[in-house]
Task: inverse folding
């Protein structure tokens, strides 16, 4: 146990020393450095940084955990997030890079010639980013509390201090180089245990192929067939066919994640860090390769973790593990409160079934699966330590990107863009750092006291971005006639109806016992779950905007020319390039 602790400290603090060193070396000296790293990052470097920014704690820690317990239904996260990246890379990023502004609200201000549009975009961005960051902070707290053997709250404080140091000091420049290092840590931490476990279970060292292979025990049974057999015997849904609440809901969920992903400002901002439009396209290609390396391994990690968990608790049909003989990893996770056993029938054995009355595994938090997986499979201690460092790298890299998006939207768009236009560059840089510090405290508070809906916060964040920011960007680039007034009302109605649907059964402003719309069932609209409703919100946004254009008239001629310049190759953009 002491050896594992030593390895964990070496892995975690070694990687932190690397991040701090990079942040100090690449600290920002100007607003251009702070917001877009001076525009001098190469496509390969940017591709890696996008990969790290992209793969949050949700991708590294939660996604394989969701796939482990939801089975086929968990694939919406794989398809939605990866598909959304392709949308972003093809339809939005190159045009916005050609336009040449620092932030998403600044682009919206230029395109819709309206300070109101800019303010609405800032509000939508902050709502989506803060919702998303709660999920990252939970990941930071879970990983630190388990591996440093401190309680969840102290783990979170420690994580906040680390993010503050390199995000506030370095800005986008420091964050970019730190994220390159974090990507390398993350991909090794994710794939090495997967290779070991795939070899153990199937004899195939490539996890993506191991998932479809026969087991190494010589039985000739395929891994997924065995998993289906094990889970259905215990009353759970068949792993390979289980879906998320029907076909329409699966489709809406995937679409919501996809277009929400394409509207997430902290990823769009990364494309402003490269020197040209061509470099933006190249970095999009590199990023897809780097993201694919992790995303194609996730289904194998999820399925193998579930099989190992089931085999540990029920080593053979009808035989249950004696609680007194539970392995060390089980005891370690019990300490965190994320794994709980209750001996309901008093026989001293662990009974794990789908029946809530007889099930004695009263809590198995999905977020522990990736972090516990190497220990469940009895892998060497250095592999377990590496996963700890990878989980923290994933949560910290995305938290830093989100904090920068929030900071720039307030200091650059709200303060310099609207409230105090004559602010000096030095003061703007100082304001950016102050705002980021405040944002870290707010997100830390939300991590310590997560709202009741925290389990779905990441999906909810994508829904909010899908219903507000994505349609505004799409219409801004591909509809020359879209006017400012129409776009503003589109954004307001899209995010408004999404928030109404999500929160209507929770009560007004989370006050228990109150509700509007009569406290209807969460999925009352065509069986679509709140986390999937962003796709419907986006349709409302588009419909309202296009209807209002007919009434208010098209955008002025010079705006239509600007859109042409942005879209046509060979023309320089009307806006100055940074």
Result:
């Amino acid at each position: 146990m002491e050896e594992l602790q030593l390895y964990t400290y070496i892995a975690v603090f070694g990687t932190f020393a690397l991040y701090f060193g990079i942040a100090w070396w690449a600290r920002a000296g100007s607003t251009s450095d702070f917001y877009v790293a001076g525009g001098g990052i190469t496509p390969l470097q940017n591709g890696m940084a996008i990969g790290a920014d992209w793969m949050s704690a949700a991708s590294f820690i939660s996604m394989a955990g969701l796939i482990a317990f939801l089975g086929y239904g968990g694939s919406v996260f794989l398809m939605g997030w990866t598909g959304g990246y392709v949308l972003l890379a093809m339809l939005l990023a190159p045009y916005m890079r050609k336009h040449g502004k620092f932030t998403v609200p600044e682009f919206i201000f230029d395109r819709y010639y309206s300070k109101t549009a800019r303010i609405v975009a800032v509000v939508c961005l902050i709502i989506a980013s803060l919702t998303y960051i709660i999920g990252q902070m939970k990941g930071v707290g879970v990983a630190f509390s388990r591996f440093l053997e401190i309680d969840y709250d102290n783990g979170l404080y420690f994580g906040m201090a680390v993010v503050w140091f390199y995000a506030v000091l370095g800005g986008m420049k420091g964050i970019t180089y730190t994220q390159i290092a974090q990507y390398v840590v993350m991909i090794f931490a994710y794939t090495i245990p997967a290779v070991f476990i795939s070899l153990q279970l199937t004899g195939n060292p490539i996890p993506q192929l191991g998932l479809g292979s026969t087991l190494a025990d010589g039985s000739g049974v395929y891994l997924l067939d065995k998993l289906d057999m094990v889970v259905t015997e215990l009353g759970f849904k068949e792993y390979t066919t289980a879906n998320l609440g029907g076909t329409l809901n699966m489709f809406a969920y995937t679409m919501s994640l996809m277009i929400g992903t394409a509207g997430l400002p902290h990823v769009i901002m990364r494309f402003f860090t490269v020197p040209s439009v061509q470099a933006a396209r190249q970095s999009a290609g590199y990023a897809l390769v780097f993201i694919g390396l992790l995303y194609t391994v996730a289904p194998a990690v999820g399925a193998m973790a579930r099989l190992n968990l089931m085999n540990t608790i029920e080593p053979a049909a009808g035989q249950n593990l004696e609680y007194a003989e539970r392995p060390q990893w089980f005891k370690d996770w019990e300490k965190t409160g994320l794994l709980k056993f209750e001996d309901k029938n008093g026989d001293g054995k662990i009974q794990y079934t789908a029946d809530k009355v007889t099930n004695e595994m009263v809590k198995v938090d999905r977020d522990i699966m990736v972090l516990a997986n190497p220990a469940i499979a009895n892998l060497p201690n250095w592999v377990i330590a590496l996963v700890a460092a990878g989980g923290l790298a994933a949560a910290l890299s995305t938290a830093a990107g989100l904090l920068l998006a929030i900071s720039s939207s307030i200091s650059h768009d709200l303060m310099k863009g609207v409230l105090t236009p004559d602010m000096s560059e030095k003061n703007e840089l100082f304001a950016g750092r102050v705002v980021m510090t405040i944002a870290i405290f707010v997100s830390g508070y939300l991590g310590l006291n997560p709202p009741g809906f925290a389990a779905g916060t990441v999906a909810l964040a994508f829904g909010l971005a899908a219903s507000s920011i994505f349609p505004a960007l799409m219409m801004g680039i591909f509809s020359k006639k879209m006017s400012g007034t129409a776009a503003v009302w589109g954004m307001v109605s899209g995010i408004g109806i999404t928030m109404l649907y999500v929160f209507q059964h929770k009560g007004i402003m989370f006050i228990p016992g109150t509700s509007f719309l009569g406290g209807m069932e969460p999925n009352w609209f065509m069986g679509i779950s709140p986390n999937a409703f962003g796709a419907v919100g986006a349709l409302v946004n588009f419909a309202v905007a296009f209807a209002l254009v007919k009434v208010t008239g098209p955008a002025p001629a010079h705006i239509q020319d600007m859109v042409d310049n942005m879209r046509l190759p060979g023309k320089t953009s009307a806006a100055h390039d940074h």
Notes: Residues 2-13+41-305+380-462 form a domain with the Sodium/glucose cotransporter fold (CATH 1.20.1730.10).
